[in-house]
């Protein structure tokens, strides 16, 4: 699959359509700056570039009313699926904390950017 298109243009179109439909707030899951600026950019370049494009579209459409949650890795996997561990020394974000942060954004209680697993895990 085309990671750049699927994570960039597709998500940008979703943000644009939501704005056009009158949706007041938008929550988007990006990728942690720690990963985007580190060695992962070489392994997952198109994925990371696509996420950055989508984040720019969300910022353009929603400005200060958006919440961009930027986890490095999220703990867990679907039943029966085994995922590799994240980068050494990186604590995974708990799915529950990501969900609580997303709900806070959807309800207008939090906006801006939550960048990195440590910042997410306080939710």
UniProtKB/TrEMBL annotation:
InterPro entries: NAD(P)-bd_dom_sf. It comes from Prymnesium polylepis. This is NAD(P)-binding domain-containing protein.
